[in-house]
Design a protein that fits this description.
Helices cover 15% and strands 56% of the residues. It is of the alpha+beta class.
Length: 393
């Protein structure tokens, strides 16, 4: 009995020890887990703070990009399609005198009719006659019994094909411009641009057909034959001892035109200083390419020097004539108009870019002249090209 009691006590003691050990181990695991969880949270918080500090540092070190609103550009330019025309400012030589009236000294390209020593005394056939006349060619005489006529001529250049517009195929120049951005929205930018360009313009009109106006004064012969003295004939103030033919001194005037030719020609050396002002609409196609539309007003100064050295050739009544015209003059004027352009930019870096531009201009024409020639220069319809670089700041 005592043995059984002892055994029961021993089993109870062992069970109590086991329960105590189990409780102790459980509490130790809970404490370890709590410590591990606490340590992991602290490490995560520290890493998050470190990452935030790194990002803040990177943002502080990263340079701030300033919006550059200004551009300055320089380019090589040329114009093509501009033109000039030559017209006549000539008048007939004053020596031909008025269209009517006798007893007047008159000179022509192929002769003369002057007041003679008798005061141009007439006869029964003609009220006034003169023996002080001369002519160059037999073809000037139109003989008829008791009648007949003699023709004298004077000419002036009219133009014709020689005066047709001459185009300048290539007019080089330089241009400088400044562009200021006013407003931008996403890929679109609005700006204002001012530019100043210099262009050299040269024209030549050489060796071309030309039109001439012919003045013809016809005088009555009254039955005399000037060819009896031969041709050419040179009458004098006093009559020849052997006798001198006398013709009427009242002209009958009329006009006609003939086509001749001009050897040599007219050259025009000019320059234009053109300023422009207008808005710009720029569209950003990619990160490094933009396309712009421009337009606005043109105001400029043009100066020109004109020189001509011509030999004019034409035929009148079967006779061939040559006459020379030489001269030089210069003048200047102010021009104004409008322009439109399309430009393409390609960025080299964040500051500089290269560009190409096509431009159309419409301006007033410029006219300069002396007493013989009139020159009209016209930039309207000219097409311009511009290539260069610009810099943003």
């Amino acid at each position: 009995m005592n043995d059984l009691s002892d055994r029961s006590s021993f089993v109870a003691f062992m069970l109590a020890m086991i329960i105590a050990v189990t409780d102790s181990n459980g509490q130790g695991l809970e404490d370890s887990s709590s410590e591990l969880i606490t340590e992991t949270s602290e490490q995560a918080s520290n890493r998050e703070r470190d990452l935030t500090d790194d990002v803040t540092l990177e943002l502080q070190l990263e340079p701030k990009v300033r919006k550059r609103k200004s551009r300055i550009g320089l380019g090589f330019s040329f114009l093509t399609g501009t033109k000039t025309s030559v017209s006549s400012a000539e008048t007939f030589d004053a020596g031909v005198g008025p269209a009517t009236g006798g007893s007047i000294n008159r000179t022509y390209a192929d002769g003369y009719v002057f007041l003679d020593s008798s005061g141009n005394l007439g006869d029964l056939h003609l009220p006034s006659r003169t023996h002080f006349f001369g002519f160059d060619n037999p073809s000037q005489i139109n003989s008829a019994p008791l009648a007949g006529t003699i023709d004298f001529h004077e000419t002036r250049f009219q133009g014709g094909a020689y005066g047709d517009p001459t185009k300048d195929s290539f007019s080089p120049g330089l241009e400088l411009f400044y562009n200021r951005s006013l407003k931008s929205r996403e890929r679109v930018e609005y700006a204002m641009e001012v530019g100043l360009g210099f262009h050299r313009l040269d024209y030549q009109s050489r060796n071309r057909p030309a039109d001439f106006e012919i003045l013809t004064d016809t005088y009555e012969l009254g039955g005399v034959d000037p060819l009896a003295k031969g041709a050419p004939y040179l009458g004098t103030f006093l009559p020849h001892i052997s006798g001198s033919p006398k013709i009427g001194d009242l002209p009958n005037r009329h006009f006609n035109s003939v086509t001749g030719h001009i050897m040599g020609g007219t050259s025009v050396d000019s320059f234009a200083l053109l300023g422009r002002l207008g808005p710009t609409l720029r569209y950003k196609m990619t990160d490094f390419m933009q396309v712009s539309v421009l337009g606005g007003l043109l105001l400029g100064y043009m100066s020109a020097e004109v020189a001509y050295a011509e030999v004019q050739q034409f035929a009148v009544a079967g006779n061939h004539y040559r006459q020379q015209r030489t001269g030089a003059f210069k003048d200047d004027d102010i021009v104004w108009g409008f322009f439109g352009a399309l430009r393409l930019n390609y960025d080299i870096n964040h500051r500089a870019s290269v560009f190409g531009e096509g431009r159309y201009m419409h301006t007033q024409s410029v006219s300069i002249h002396d007493g013989i020639r009139s020159i009209e220069m016209d930039l309207a319809g000219g097409i311009g090209m511009l290539v260069g670089v610009d810099y943003r700041f």
